[in-house]
Protein 1
Amino acid sequence: MGTKTLRPTIPCFLFGCADLCDRARVPFTTRASKKSLRSMKGLCLTLEPATVMEADVHKMSVPLENGSLAPVDRLRSERSDSPTPGLVEGTEPGAGQDSAMFVHAQSFEDLTAEGEQGQEQEEVQEEEEGESERAPEFGELGDSEETQEPEGKEEQEQEERENEKEEEDQSGSGRAKEEDVNSEAWRRHRKHVFVLSEAGKPIYSRYGTEEALSSTMGVMMALVSFVEAEKNIIRSIHADGYKVVFLRKSPLVLVGVSRCRQSERELTRELLYIYYQIISLLTLTQLNHIFQHKQNYDLRRLLAGSEHLTDNLLRLLDRDPGLLLSAVTCLPLASSSRDVISSSLQAAKAKSLVFSILLAGSRLVTLVRKKDQFLHHMDLHLLFNLVGSSSSFREGEGWTPICLPKFNMAGFFHAHISYLEPASELCLILVSTDREDFFNLSDCKRRFLERLRRRSSYQALQEAVQAPSYPVSQVGIPELRHFVYKSKSSGLYTSPEIPVPYKCEEEEERLMDLYQYLHSRMHHPTRPLRSIYHCAEKENLLAYVTSGFELYLCFSPLGTKALAVSAVNKLLKWIRKEEDRLFILNPQTY
Amino acid sequence: MSEVRVRGRAETGLKFHGETRALRVKMVLLGSSGVGKSSLALRFSKDEFKASAPTVGCAYLTQVVCLHDATLRFEIWDTAGQEKYHSVTPLYYRGAHAALVVYDITKRESFIRAQLWLKELEKQYIPGETEVVLVGNKMDLPDDREVSLQEGRSLAERGGLLFMETSAKSGEQMNELLLTIGSNPEHKIRIMQLLERNRV
C-alpha cells in the first residue's frame, strides 16, 4: 500500500492537491450540494450550507435535523458537488447507494479454472479492482504516458478499413458465409474468430463456412496439442502484424486472429464472451456430457439457428463500450420516474422470479433482483444480445431456457421476454427458475404494465425512450467531442450520443478502436497505466483510471493537454450533478 | 370462407354480447427449423408476413376467432425447431387441443423430420384429445417442390390425421387450415365437445 500514496505520479500533479488529499485520506473541504439539501428537506430550498464534509464520502447515518420521514435508504445520500479524481471506490459519481446491482467478484468457475488459464482470468477480472493496487516495481518511472501516433500508420489502417467496408457492402447484409476462404478479401477481415472442438471439428467461424475451414481448424488444434504435449499452454502467436490468440476452455478451443491494436488480453476476453455465449445456449453440463459420449460430435447441429447470436455478439464487441468496460449503460431518466418503474416491477413479483430487467434497446431502464442474488454484467450482456438479435420476441411472448454462465454454468434459467408494446423499444425480461412458470410470469408482466399505465411515469419513460440521448455540448466543455465514464462500484457507464464527426459507421468504429486501444494500454497486464494522453490523427484522447472510475475522453485536434486535464474535474462535476438521471443510484430487490 | 372470420378481440366482443368468455383452444406448432412455423403463427394472429430470424425457445401468441356461434380463443405455442430446444417442447404440446406438424414442401429432410415429430407426438397424446394436422408449408414455391402433395396426403391418411398444404407467405389456404381444424364435420363435433368440457 505504501507505493500507492508515495509513488510520484503525473496525474497527482495534474489534478492538484484535492487528489493528493483524498489519496492520503485527509479530509478535504467542499460545499454540500443544493441537491443533497433538497433531498434532506424534501423542499426546493436554496440555502448555502456551511457544513464541512469529508470529501465525497457517503454519510450513511442521516443527521437528526433531517426532518424527513422517508426511510433512510430512500434518500439520496449526501454527495459532494465537486468530486475529485482521486475518489475512493463507492463514492464516485454514479456509485449506487447501498449495494451494487452487479457482481464484481470472479465467478466460482473463474476461481477454479486450472493452471495458467486461471491466472489469466484473474488478470482479466482484476480490471475491476483498480490498477493502483498492483503497481509494478518500476512504478517510479511514472505510470502516465503520452503517445503520438506515428503518421501514416493510421492512414494505412484507414485504407484497410475502407477496403473492408467495400467488401462488406458487396457481400450484402446478413451473414457473409459463402465467402471464399482462400480469397484475399477473407484474409483481410480485421478480426476472425474460430471455435472448434478438442477433436479439431469446426464449430463456428465468423467468416466463411466451417466446412471450408476444417483443415485450418485442424492445424489450430494441432498447434494447441503440440504445445500441450510439452506440458505447456499456447496463449498467442504474434507475427506479421497479426495476433493469434488461443483460449482453451475444455471441451472447446477458441481462436481469435486479429490485426487490430487490441492487446492479447483483450482478445482473450472477447473469446471468453463467445465461449459464454455458447454456454448460455447449452450449459456446460450438457456440453461436457455431449463430448464425453462422443468426442467427435458435430456441435453445429445443436447450435444451428443460433449463429446469428454469436455474429451479433462479435459486432457488439466491436462497437459497444459496455462490453469493453464491463459495464452497462442506463436510459437517462428522472430518478423519480425510475423509482416508480422499479417499485412497479418490484410489486409484480412471483415466487420463482430471480431478476426483472427492463430494457430500452441496449440501455438499462431498471433491474430488480432477488435479495442476495446478483447478476454479472457479462450475463446481462448476453441477455442484451439475445434480445437484440432475435425478432421473435416482437410477435408474442417469448419463453426460453437460458443459462447465465456467470451465475451458474450448470443450469438453465427460464426467461419470459416480451416487449411492452408491439412497436416499442421497451423490453421486459423476467428471469425465473421454474420452467413451468410461464403463465405466472405472463401475469407478472400484465400486473406490471397495468400498474405502470396508471402512473404518469409511463409517459415520462416513453418520452425518454423516444428522445435522443444527451449531446456532449450539455457538459459545456469546449473541444470535447465524446466521452465514456464508468463508475466502478455500480458497474454502470454513461456516454453522450455519438457526435457528428463519428456518426457514420466506420468512424464510430474507429473511435471505438481508439478507446479499445487506450483500454488495452491502461489495463496492460504487466505495466498498467493510470492515465494516458494520446494524439491520434484526427483527435486527441485522454484516458484516466482511478480506483473509483474509468474515464475516456475524446477531444478535437484543437484541444490541448492542459484543456484535457482540466476537463476531467469539470466533467466529474457535471456527472455528479446529473447522476440521478444518468445512473441507477438505488437498485431495488424484491 | 364466410364461416371463418378472423377478427380482433374488440370486434368479437361486440358481436357476441351473450358470450362472455371464449373457449380456449391450445394449439402447438411443431416441425424442424426453417419450415415456417413462426410465419404461420404470424399469419394466423396478425395476417402478416415477415421474414423472421430463428425462434428462440418458444413464442406464445393469442388470437380470438369467431366460428359460427362460438368464440374461440386460440393460444398458439410457436416452438423453435432447433434441436437444442427439443428437451423442453413436450411442455408445450402436453394437453394441446390441436397440434400442427409443419414441414417445408421444398425440403425433403423436413418431411422426414415431420414423421419423427408425429411419432414423438403419438407418445404424448391420447387419441381424440389432440387434433393433429400435417401441414406442408411454402406451397408458393411449386418449382422447388421436393415433397409431392400425394406423399403428404398419404402420410396423413395412414396416421388418420388431417392434412393441408399452405403458404404463410401468400396467405393461401390459411383460412382453409382454420376450417380444417374447426369444421370438418366429425372432427368439429369432437372439437366442440372437447371445448365444451374445457369451458372456463
Protein 2
Amino acid sequence: MTASSKTKSRRPKAPKATSPEKASVPAKARIRQLATGVRGLDEILGGGLPEFSFNIIGGAPGCGKTTLAHQIVFANATAARPALYFTVLGESALKMLRYQQQYSFFNPAKLNKAIRFIDLSEAVVERDFEGVLEAIRSAVETARPSMVVVDSFRTMARKVTSEAGDMALQSFVHRRAMFLTSWQATTFLIGEYTEGELRDNPVFTVADGLLWLTQNTERNSVVRKLQIVKLRGQGSVPGRHTVRITDDGMQAFSRTLGMVGRKGRPRTQRRLSTGIPELDTMLGGGVFEGDSVLVSGPSGTGKSAIATHFMTEGLRNGEPGIVAVFEERPEGYAARAGTLGLDLEKPQREGILEILYLRPLDLSVDETMQEILDAVKRLKAKRLVIDSLVGFEMALAPGFREDFRESLYRMIAALTGAGVTILTTVEIEDSFTKFEFSHYAISFLTDDIIRLRYVEIDGQLRKLIVVVKMRGGNHVKDIREYVISDDGVAIIGPLQTQYSKLTTGLPERIMQWSNEPAPEPRATRRPDVK
Amino acid sequence: MTRATLELRTAAERLLELESSAGKRAGRLPAARRVTDRLRQVLSTFLGAGGYRALLARALNLAKSEAPELSAVHLLPDGAIEGLSSDDGNRKRRFTDGEVVLVAHLLGLLVTFVGEALMLRLVHDTWPRVSLSDLDFDEGTIP
C-alpha cells in the first residue's frame, strides 16, 4: 500500500437538514491527514499529520529528530509529489545518507527522484535571510514538493536573530510558512531546542504543530519520549509518549495504548473456570469474563501453578491465551507446567498459546503493553497471564518504575476493556503481623483477589488460600488449605480441627479433631534410626 | 596505500569512455574533468559546493599516491580540476590511467560513505546509458 493511499480525511459530518437554511450550510475545510510511517504516531497525533501544516520537530541533539523527519518523508514522498530536504550547517547530507540508509524505511530508489537533498549552508553563510528565503523559494517553485524539511532550522534562526532580532525571525518564519502552505507543502523545521526555550519563542507561535522529543538518562538506562505540545485543527493524545529507535526507525507507544475512542466491551455475567474446581466454588462459580484477577503470595506458594491452571483450562475450552513471563524463559515455564501435569507445549505448537518472554532491561510499560496487545490481537486471546508484577517491574528502565502504578492501571483497563480476562501474580513476603495483598497498592485495579500464604501447623509449613475480593459477586470467605502435587493444585476439604489467627501465620488451635491427618504426611522417624 | 579496486577502475573507465566520446563533440576538455564536472552538478546540490570539493580533494589525494602523473593536478575553488593531461602515449585510449584512478577513487569514496546502492543511483541519474550492475563494489577502495 502506498503512503498516499493511507491518507485519511477528516471531513466533518454535515449537520442533518432540519430546515432549508441548515441544509445549505457550506462544508468546513477538509483537512487530509497524512500517515507518518511511524508506528503508533498517527494515533498519538489524532489520526495523522494535517496536510499543509507547518511543523517544528524540536529537542536536544540525539533525540531522533532527523530520523523522525526522514521516516515521515520516506513514507510520503513520491516522484510526482516529491519532498525537498534542506540541510543547513548541521549534519552533512553525505553523513545523513550514510546513517539513515541503515534504517529499513530508507529506500534508495527515492533519492533524487522522490526525495531531493539540497544543501543550504553556503546560502546561509554568504547571504542574508532574504537570500536564504529566495533559495528556498526557487527550489520549491521548481520542484513543487509536497513536503519540505529544513534541518537544522536552529542554525538559520540564529543568523536571522543576530542580524535583525526576534521580530525579524518571526516575520521570516511567518512568510516562509505562508509561502510553503500556499505551495501546498507540509513543512517541518528541525531544531535543537531545550525545554526552557519552549516559552516565548516566536518560531513556536507561528507553527501549527510542535513535536517535542526528549531523551533522559536515568542510571544506566536511556528513555526517549515524544510530546505533541501543539497541533492545530485536531485533537492529539496529551502527555509524553515513549518512543524507541530500532533498525526499523522510530516507533511511538501511545499512553492510551491505541484504545482511544474504542468502546469497552460490556461486562458479561459469564463465569470462567480457573481449572481448579474447588477454587471456582470459592469464587462463587468462577471468574467473571473480562475480570482482572490478582493472585498474591510469597515465593513457592504456587502462584504460577494457579496461573497455569487458569491458562490451560481456557485452552481446553478453545480460548487462545497469552502468558507474559519476565523471570524465566518460555521453555522453562512450559517445562515447569509439565511437572504439574499441565501441557503448555502442544497449545504453543497449535498456535493458540504464546508465552512472551519480556526481559530485556530498559523496557517501558508502554512497549511491554504493545507487545502484549499485539499478541492478544494476533491470537484473538481471551485469557492473559502476567507472571509476575515483580518481574515486570524489574524489567523496566528505572525511570519507568516511578510510573508503574499508573501504567498498570492503563494496561489492565485497556486489556479488560478489550474483553480479555487477566490473571496477574505478585510476590509478597509473608508478614506475621500483617496480611498484605500486594506491595503495589493496586487492589483497586483488580476485580478479584486471591491470597496465598504459609502457615505453621504441627511443625509443618502448610499453605492456605482465601478469596479476599470478588467484584460483582459473592464468594466463599473460608480460609482453605491446599497442596501442590504432580497433579497440580488441589484444595483440600475444610479442616475439622478449628484454628484462629490463621492469617497471622501462627494459628492457635481452638478445637482439636481427633486424629485428623495432615494433608501431606509428616516426616516420621525411621525405626532403624535411634 | 589505498588502491582503487578493479571494479571501481572498470566503472571509471566506462564513465570516461562515454565522456571522451561526447568530448569529441563538446570540446577538448579531459574526460576526467567532464566526469567530475557532471558529478559536481549532482553532488553539490545536496553536499554543497564545499562538501563536494572536500570529497574530490580526498579522491585526488588518494589518486596521486597511486598515479604519480597526477602530481600537477589541483582543485580550483569551485571544485573543478585543473592540470590533467589527456595524453599518456596510449593511442588506443582517449584518457590517461591517472584519470581512471582519480574517478575510481571518487566513486570509491561514495561507496564508502553512502554505500553501493546510492552510488549506483547517483551514477545512473547522471549517466542513464551506463550500466554498472555487473560490477561488485563491495566496500569501495581497498585500504
